[in-house]
Write a structure and sequence with these properties.
The complex is a heterodimer. By secondary structure, chain A is mainly alpha-helical. In chain A, 73% of the residues lie in helices and 5% in strands. By secondary structure, chain B is of the alpha+beta class. The chains are: A mainly alpha, B alpha+beta.
Chain lengths: 311, 122
Amino acid sequence: MLVLLLLLAYTVCVLLLGPRLAAGRPWTSSAPRLGLVICHAVPAAAVSGVALMAAMTAVSVQHVRADVGHLLHACAVAVWDSATHPGVPVTTALGLAAAVLLTHLVRTAASSASSARRTRREQREGLALIGHGSDGDGYTRVTSEQRFAYCLPGEGGRIVVSTAAERELDDEELAAVLAHERAHLTGRHHALVQITQVLANAVPLAPLRALRAEVATLVEMAADDRACREFDREALLTALLRLGAPGAATPGLAVNGSRTVARALRLAEPSQQQPVSQRAALCAVAGAMVITPWLLGAVPVALAVTGHCSA
Amino acid sequence: MAKFGELESAVMDLVWSSPEPLTVRRVMEAMAADRPLAYTTVQTVMDRLARKGQLLRRPEGKANTYRAARTREDHTASVMQEALHGVSDTQAALLHFVELMDEEQEQALRAALARRKRARRS
């Protein structure tokens, strides 16, 4: 009971406060990959907490129903008798709520994944008829007066560039754009974006929406950094300005220029890396966030084992 | 044997550039120079395209004729619409290189970049 309540409180704290470690923090733009790690500690910790709550209740409920035979089970029972004695119904209610939330998360993840897969398949099939491979440059060229470049993950991945965007960029700028998109594909950035997106969709809370937006920004910055290892910063910056400029007549392309502005300023003036100590501390926090629910869950098991041995 | 995707694309190119509906035989003959294919292969590809709604089939005399359901431009527009539509954070199916700035943001950014350039020079 106590452990369940602690897990509940911990999970709620992680969901509400965890995002504050990274979302909207200036430090993330100087270390986008570390930022991504911290951002994903939140879903990892929250899902651990919820899953443990559901699992622990399942063990205790099972004991109420069935005859208990062997030692291992007896251990669990002893734990639960001691840990849950006053409030079995409350425990069950908490556990059920956790199980419902877990199911909801899994279903949201599944439907989000299948809708993304469907869109990608439609894109691939549609592009197969109109896209023309650019000779050996590894992208699909689409005749369009709209300026855009994007990557389509799945089945090896594919980069799509419009003829208008191609015209707008010189060779090095285009190469930098392609390197940026390749970084998305090799880094499986779409999967990262999808994780926090599923969490924000399943649990509609403002901090989680902020977390999702942060991840969407950080994958772009991480891809920018990767591209800058091969190509000139200036080239990428110019490409960003050319393709992100208003009046590109791209109906449908969302206007969310603040992200573009942040990326451009960052490319123009690379900020100082954080000191190693600070980065290490952040990593430690992320690790602790994920491990804590498991430690909490281990408490009753440990109690049971020691209790049985001494008895 | 070439991949279906490639053949479909080649067939659509022919149909799109033809002013009139085409029969399977006409398509096969037109493709023969580049890639000699069996009649049944071309038939299969065109059936697939008809099933996917890309080609419209109409019986004419003994053979069927096929024409494109949409122009190449319309097809392109709809594929791009789908790609550009869900750019926001709510859809992670694909990742765009950049999001558009509005006029104000762009001017502010250019001003900031210019200031930095001057500062670095001095």
